[in-house]
Amino acid sequence: MVAILVVATIIVFLAIDYFVKRPGKQEAVRTMSESAKPRFAMPKGYFFGRGHTWIELLSDNLARVGLDDFAQKIIGRIDDVDFIAGDSEVAKGDKLFTVRQGEKTLSFRAPISGKVVSFNDELVSSPEVLRKKPYSDGWVAILEPANFDQEAKSLSRGNEAAQWLREEIKRFRNFITVQENTLLASPAKAGATLLDGGTPAEGVMEHSSKETWQKFEADFLANGGSD
Known about the structure:
CATH class: Mainly Beta
């Protein structure tokens, strides 16, 4: 009887240990740097451009490009995604795609130079995928890089990317503070713009004007492709 109780106890503790250590679905989106948790995901192995785009190197000298988690979260709802013409040659810093929310738009620049091989057509009919899975199904374009080894020097990843994101969060917090009078639809929303010790609330740009979107693009996205 004692032996049965001992075995049963061991089984119970093993079960508890399994479920405690078992990674959840959120963690399965690749481990993020501690500095960016829990708000903004930064998958390991990805490169990040200064205009809030990411690059994942694929086989056959191809690279997949998308919108980073920081940008998609603060933008909030995305109604449409527009691409430039297919089979285009783009230089680093050229406009690559545009997202729309109502009458407001933001254009994102190519983080690297190359030929556009394809765009993610699923985003045309289901733009919400860009928000649900920004680093997988929500990819935007596949490029054939023209000079990746050289241009990669202006990209960041790992700890460097995490440090850059910390600075971007601070910069955006200041941007929100300065823009607060015009950004928010009502004073009651002011307390929702900054959370978790200064982390921007998700969807905060939904409450902004066209002018604020234009200024955000100029300050955070327009020079994203330049060194």
